[in-house]
Amino acid sequence: MVKKRVECRDCRYFKRAPYEAPRTGCWFPEFMQQTQKDAFLKEQEIPGDNEQINLRGDCAKFEARTPRGSIWKRMLAGEF
Ligand code: SF4
Questions:
Q1: Nearest in space to 14 (alpha carbons), one of 60, 56, 63
Q2: Measuring from atom 4 of ligand 1, which residue has the nearest CA?
Q3: From ligand 1's centre to the CA of 4, what distance in Å?
Q4: pTM
Q5: Measuring CA to CA, which of 2, 27, 67, 76 is 20 to 30 A from 46?
């Protein structure tokens, strides 16, 4: 059976700097190069190199991003 290739950009653990995270990469906890326990040190965290981890497009930890609801639904849910 041919398994579909997974793309990091569709994965919920992939975050891009500067809007989603301080550094671009894979933020799956086990793949991160450096993690911090204390919230005030979160800026120092280093994500994993997603290109290396998912080189063959077969990352086992891939999880699809959940689609964002409409702006009205998000506003009513108190996101703003
Ligand atoms: S390496 Fe895996 S877990 Fe990390 S962003 Fe890519 S698909 Fe997601």
A1: 63
A2: 26
A3: 14
A4: 0.83
A5: 67
What are the pLDDT digits (tens) for 47-70?
Answer: 999 999 999 999 999 999 988 889
Whether residue 4 has pLDDT greater than 90: no
| Cα–Cα distance for residue pair 24/20, rounded to 1 Å | 8
Query: Which residue's CA lies nearest to atom 1 of ligand 1?
Result: 50
Length of the chain: 80
Interval 19-52: pLDDT, tens: 999 999 999 999 999 999 999 999 999 999 999 9
| Residue 13 neighbours by CB under 8 Å, 6+ apart | 26, 27, 28, 31, 61, 63
CA 72 – ligand 1 centroid, Å: 30
Domain limits, the chain = 1-80
